[in-house]
Amino acid sequence: QALVPSSEWLQRHGLRRNKLSLSQILSQLGFRHRKDYVTALGKRVGSRYADGLFPQHRGALDGSVYNLTAKKELILHFVDCLTGAIELYEQRMEWLTSESRQIFGVIQEGCIVIVLDSGSVAPAEFDLCRDALSMVLVEQVTRIAKFNLLWAAQDLMKWQQQCTPVSEQAVKSALTWLWKLERVTAAGHPNSARALLEATSDQAVSS
């Protein structure tokens, strides 16, 4: 799936975009039961001809009532459309909460710097962090334009001096650099902040 935010994904595949919201469906299955103002009577009067003639459904947020006139075939058509939409939403949710996206979310920027700060994690946890970073490099960074890695140790270390175009060779090089790092004790807040400032100093960085 494309590395797009959910807001953009919904613009393409959302219920309203595909005319599958409740109010949109109801307007295609029947007509709204209206109450119009009758000047001669000085009050709002409902359309009595529909009372008891059609099944009714109160489904809109404003409490509107719809008289349902659709045939079974049209209703089954919407059942199929909504079933497909549910399956699509489930696929999206499964994709959003799997692999590296479960930890990092969906990387949408074209140029990023990943700042590594192990803090006081144990050696085993440090390797788990590197596993997660390796996963995001392979699964998501390979699909953007440029990237860099910065190690927030006592002495800041960069994989490259500036953001590098993404390629298979570049990602392999970054993975090798990552796994050659040795865990150090917490760098401390000043160094962590300095690493973040250094990461954003590259004008090419999106975020």
From TrEMBL:
State the source organism's domain of life: Eukaryota
Q: In its UniProt entry, what is this protein called?
A: VWA3B protein
